[in-house]
Design brief:
Six copies of one chain form a homohexamer. Chain A folds into two domains: 95 residues, OB fold (Dihydrolipoamide Acetyltransferase, E2P) (Beta Barrel), CATH 2.40.50.140; 189 residues, Hypothetical protein af1432. In chain A, a hairpin with a 5-residue loop joins β1 and β2. Chain A has ten helices and seven strands. Chain A is an alpha+beta fold. In chain A, the strands form two sheets. Chain A has a five-stranded mixed barrel. Chains D and F meet through loops of D and β1 of F. Chains A, B, C, D, E, F: InterPro entries: HD/PDEase_dom (IPR003607), HD_domain (IPR006674), HDIG_dom (IPR006675), NA-bd_OB-fold (IPR012340), YhaM_exoribonuc/phosphodiest (IPR050798). Chains A, B, C, D, E, F: This is HD domain-containing protein. Chains A, B, C, D, E, F: Pfam families: HD (PF01966). Chains A, B, C, D, E, F: It comes from Aequitasia blattaphilus.
Chain lengths: 313, 313, 313, 313, 313, 313
Amino acid sequence: MKYINELRDGDNVRGVYLCKGKRVAQTRNGKPYDNLLIQDKSGTIDGKIWDPNSGGIADYDEKDFVEIVGEVISYNNNLQLNIRQLRVAKEGEYNPGDYMPTTEKSVDEMYDELLSFINRIENTYLKKALSFYFVEDAAFIQCFKNHSAAKTVHHGFAGGLLEHTLSVVKFCEYMIGAYPILNADLLYAAALFHDIGKIRELSAFPDNDYTDAGQLLGHIVIGVEMIDESIRHIEGFPVVLANELKHCVVAHHGELEYGSPKKPALAEALALNFADCTDAKMQTMTELLKDREDTGWIGYNRLFESNIRKTSE
Amino acid sequence: MKYINELRDGDNVRGVYLCKGKRVAQTRNGKPYDNLLIQDKSGTIDGKIWDPNSGGIADYDEKDFVEIVGEVISYNNNLQLNIRQLRVAKEGEYNPGDYMPTTEKSVDEMYDELLSFINRIENTYLKKALSFYFVEDAAFIQCFKNHSAAKTVHHGFAGGLLEHTLSVVKFCEYMIGAYPILNADLLYAAALFHDIGKIRELSAFPDNDYTDAGQLLGHIVIGVEMIDESIRHIEGFPVVLANELKHCVVAHHGELEYGSPKKPALAEALALNFADCTDAKMQTMTELLKDREDTGWIGYNRLFESNIRKTSE
Amino acid sequence: MKYINELRDGDNVRGVYLCKGKRVAQTRNGKPYDNLLIQDKSGTIDGKIWDPNSGGIADYDEKDFVEIVGEVISYNNNLQLNIRQLRVAKEGEYNPGDYMPTTEKSVDEMYDELLSFINRIENTYLKKALSFYFVEDAAFIQCFKNHSAAKTVHHGFAGGLLEHTLSVVKFCEYMIGAYPILNADLLYAAALFHDIGKIRELSAFPDNDYTDAGQLLGHIVIGVEMIDESIRHIEGFPVVLANELKHCVVAHHGELEYGSPKKPALAEALALNFADCTDAKMQTMTELLKDREDTGWIGYNRLFESNIRKTSE
Amino acid sequence: MKYINELRDGDNVRGVYLCKGKRVAQTRNGKPYDNLLIQDKSGTIDGKIWDPNSGGIADYDEKDFVEIVGEVISYNNNLQLNIRQLRVAKEGEYNPGDYMPTTEKSVDEMYDELLSFINRIENTYLKKALSFYFVEDAAFIQCFKNHSAAKTVHHGFAGGLLEHTLSVVKFCEYMIGAYPILNADLLYAAALFHDIGKIRELSAFPDNDYTDAGQLLGHIVIGVEMIDESIRHIEGFPVVLANELKHCVVAHHGELEYGSPKKPALAEALALNFADCTDAKMQTMTELLKDREDTGWIGYNRLFESNIRKTSE
Amino acid sequence: MKYINELRDGDNVRGVYLCKGKRVAQTRNGKPYDNLLIQDKSGTIDGKIWDPNSGGIADYDEKDFVEIVGEVISYNNNLQLNIRQLRVAKEGEYNPGDYMPTTEKSVDEMYDELLSFINRIENTYLKKALSFYFVEDAAFIQCFKNHSAAKTVHHGFAGGLLEHTLSVVKFCEYMIGAYPILNADLLYAAALFHDIGKIRELSAFPDNDYTDAGQLLGHIVIGVEMIDESIRHIEGFPVVLANELKHCVVAHHGELEYGSPKKPALAEALALNFADCTDAKMQTMTELLKDREDTGWIGYNRLFESNIRKTSE
Amino acid sequence: MKYINELRDGDNVRGVYLCKGKRVAQTRNGKPYDNLLIQDKSGTIDGKIWDPNSGGIADYDEKDFVEIVGEVISYNNNLQLNIRQLRVAKEGEYNPGDYMPTTEKSVDEMYDELLSFINRIENTYLKKALSFYFVEDAAFIQCFKNHSAAKTVHHGFAGGLLEHTLSVVKFCEYMIGAYPILNADLLYAAALFHDIGKIRELSAFPDNDYTDAGQLLGHIVIGVEMIDESIRHIEGFPVVLANELKHCVVAHHGELEYGSPKKPALAEALALNFADCTDAKMQTMTELLKDREDTGWIGYNRLFESNIRKTSE
């Protein structure tokens, strides 16, 4: 089987892919056909089943893994997969990990680096609170390593939550060096915890969509509850410290209209807000421009409220 | 001792009052004097100590209960208390309850009415969650009955939290009758719980000021944690129901910029938001106009972004 | 004839319907066809005329009542009506009332209830002003009973204006009981009058669209003119009372950016604003969720700025 | 009697002035004194009565015309009037017109120029509607000529409403020449009518303050009612034209948040909005800078959201 | 060759046109076809090549001038050009000027009028700065005369920059007469210079799109640099005057959120802002309504945030 | 002479200080006195001259260096200097550098570090443009080293511009390591140049106030002009690179409403915006909290829109 980013005009394809989307349409003559969004870890391609009632096309649904037989054509400068046969694949015929966009970095190395920051923390309460999840909770660790940090936008791939969290932690490391006012232990702990609520806000891959709890509460409130869960297991955790830690998480979006019910009131909350925001925006810019080869303007981007382009040289 | 709202020009005063505020000032000739804000449950009056170093004036501080000897004068249409003697009163010389603004309604009757709503709830999980605090937790009940709902603005008096909560619950009762879409049990529970976080956001009277937790987390996040605390003690509490209940509390300010990290996504959350907002605004208007006898314009009010006045007969 | 909400896949249809919309389209082969929006009181269905030049298809236009012969098919989970024959129906062949979405409540009962509120008003000036329209003006009464309260959004059906007005009045009744500051007569009168400008802002069914006056002036300014018209016929109507009544109508949208040229400056104006806003939002939520059977998320709603869903249970 | 702008340090003053403001104050020694704002048409000066209980000081109140005996001193680069004697003047002892800030232009010439624009209008309905007030209604004319256009801000002097209206009309004359799309008759009529509601929104001089109707309805709604009053007297006034005329007045503030319940939807409404806004801002700038002799920065101005200064030669 | 605005249903066409846009599409049967936007100075028309691989259709691209053979048909009330033959035209076969939307006024007369304003300026420094471009720089003059003032919106045609600039200058002439506070020389100079940055912000016709410098810097910053370029060549140009002139250009959008880094701080900057804004909006309205024959509502316009229509009469 | 931060209650003072502010006031008895703001590099103290007409008090003015004889008293918990004698000091009697707030870091070391970043730049055009100012222009270097970065807010002290610029450059160094998308040379050059316009926007110490050019143009536009000045001296400077560099400076405030006429459109512009904003906010927080010893709430801060406090530990 070929990865999607290796397909070329004229290729004949036989392989198992994830059917990420399915939409029934109709030609103007009243003839129905299917539009599919075919995905593997390397990318996505549009698929068409022009004759859905043909014998070769079995029943299938969105989010099924399907074996496909078809041909790649080039249409209006985009590749498209005309599908002649399709059947739902059985478990064992495929490795789910092959079908999700995934961080390009080593998950294990990133996780080790994350742990090294926990080890630097001197405050035993904060260290225990972090260990409760990041060291002792195997299910959490497994989930955290494979989670995305978003449904779309930036870091929307398996390992994205880990990659973003590490990036924010390292950003905080820089700021701790630059601004003596910052309490290193508190800021590291807050940075490590800041997005753990996403574990429950977004479902795991290949679904990667908002959960009911995510819609109703959001990852900030969920994150505070998770921190609270950890703190309850630690005898003598100072109340003021607990509130300061939660505050940093509560305020990390920086503005009420971005979903933080409180504005940053501590230097560490402010620093975390900048680290999170900067990493999110720089990563978004990276994802938007990474496959570009020229420095042409790519069109108005709503997040940046500007047309954008790669820099020359 | 006379209550402050009974004082008249020329009265000689001897009695214990709360020194709500103290500010040292200086005449232009360099002579220091003290500005006091004197309070009891009936209201406040400005006090002046023109000779703070006189023998009759003992050491005292803000928030002390002080015995005062002085005279009421009328100055520029306002009464003012010129204080000749002052000493800090001892516990036992006064009843703290006499010095806080307090609801004009019966706290016990209001609380009984609140309980009657809990009794109407059929869903056993929600009923148990409410009983955890409102029926079984004596310290909570004591505190809830005497708390204010705000530092200033509306319901900023002892019993104000109870009065506001009951008013919102009854508002919801009306809406449950008017809009069949509403789930009565969920809405009653959410209304009863919506401001419990204020117990920890604001300190008790006579202080009635933001606590550290209140500044850092706010009553919405604190309230969710308190609900969570209760739910953890109830076996089998349905996850979806828990999230719906918390959502209503999370979203009850209605807008992100008012401190709700989520906008109302359920009909009950929407209804609670309207009940809370309407009661707050109607009570504020009531407090602003209640002592007015005429229908003259009282000046621009920043909350209402308008000049306001009483309505003619 | 079957109502549209009774049609099922495979049904053969012959009957008169309202052609609410007509749009000519073209297949990619250059063959023209017609897209219709077919409506009766029970709902709407898409219609297609694949061969508009066929002998069975007579000339017709948008907003015509047309007799249709065709067949219901199910396409991509939606029903669709393939039309083989069509002709414009003559007056007498149909009852226009069968083709408009209409309140599910009894118009006469609602109107009687509305009148009962007028009868409660003790202030003779306000009572006369209301009677001028609601009791004495038969044409107004006829129109008011059958008008919608909106082009789309909430209460966009015949009787909707009446239903919404009554709902707001009853909301005010609750508030009058809850907030003693409110002047009952003024608030009832303002509530009854608040949307009468919609009589002239929106044309009658089946058109139900903005009139020229509606576009140029809006229902608030029109409403003030209509109240003014009534007041001019009442000798000795107190000027202050007239201004207070008009103010409540002027300010009932609550914010300048929602089209009220003044913010509420009286308690009654504030109360009316809340009653109107709450009823509008609760009704919108009801209309969005009423045909849902599950509690799945229905997608982002722009009015509520949130994804929404039905509550569990 | 000397006009206020002629007073100099050391002058002895005896004359009748308007007491525009009165505020009782107290020295730090507890000695009361009075702060006055003394006004005549040429300007204002601060007054002090250091001994209000002296025999020479009779009872008086804000907005009284008072005969004053005192001395001008220079204090911190500002003149100040120390008042030794004061009594309320009787009618006949003064000419009210001498005590209001007044346009520097000829009221009669401006009014004649205004009438010349009415004479240019060819549409008989619009001409009649204007004549109803500007030609036939002597009381209106008298009032319009002497009214201000604002409580403070721009054109806040007698004749200011006339001066502003004429200026806007002439601005429209320019635009009619520049933009052929404009209907001259409609735009002239709308410009002449655009602020007539101010006649009832603001009380006459020397009070010049918001009336009850002004607070409750504002000059836009009042203006529409006044136009409506005129139109009712003109048989056959075309409905569409009436709505267009009212629309221009309704929309002349340009934005909902500036108090227009509708945004400009006609070219004439747009033009009127620009003419009004430009004249208001240019006049405000003129009033702010007119007495400046140098080009120094005069400090942050909230209306212009900028520090401002005169331009160099 | 016929101009596009003269084409009628059934016409056979042979002539050279500008291919303003080209988009490849596909019928539902998988058959590709081309959508073209055909333009000449009189307007645009949609073109279709149903058989792009036919022998008569040569290679071509967007922005080519192409000779077309085809037939006009009427489809859904719009004309459409079905193209049977197409080839790229050679230079010399067409006059580029025939293919751009162009001002309807005389460019030379407008330019002469512009120069007459420069001649009125008495301040020699300002006059020299203007002459540097408008009198002495032939390339600039050529470019300025043929440039548009916008990519779309108002004045988006050849000569549009000149037409808009002249219109703003004349608007300023009116204001100089009306508001004595204005320094005529400074305002004329600022008005003449205010949009010269558009010369480099937008590329010339037929491209008329944002340049790289336009995207990165915008016409305000570019305009300041161009003025600076001119001033450097004039010995003794007073620094204060230079800053005032640049300020007027910097602030001419009036609001930071419209791209002016400074709000108007001088009367002339304010006047220029109004003149520019008013002319832009009046011209936009003119362009929107100019081809309308009736007074029907044309639908919601995003710039005006309102539905708009022509005025009656 | 003692530095201001060493003064204690009861100290007798004789020494030269900067009179940063002077305001004439009046006791309620009509007796004038002077309020002074006395400054040296260590801080400020309020001064009072209770008898300005005494023989010991010579003429003086704001921004004079004055020799003072007086006594320190403690008043309402603040120190105050009662001045008995005052005369303007002559040049030579004081060292101006002793009277300005100054960076606590070594200016020369910071400048050397700044130069080391210039040396890292490989692009010869960017390196030359930077050298034009930072290496070759002695007057610029002198000025840059001693300038503040603000009138008030953050880095409002001599050396502040250098300290802030270096901090931003180092922040960019971190980001260049973290985000491979960034062009190091461009980002370093932009960071070094980003605030050079402040050299001309703010006057030098001890004045440190907005200049005329600063008010009219602002440091962004001035900065672009200064970069342009440098680039003009460098043959062959690539146009695209020049525009990219200027863009980064133009967009470094990040939002139009913060005074950037363009939003960041390049990754480097985005990074610079974050570095600048983060450093400004972290430094402001540092300055607000640096002298605090406890973790009490210090009150609502308008910049942060929140009450703030030091973190515990």
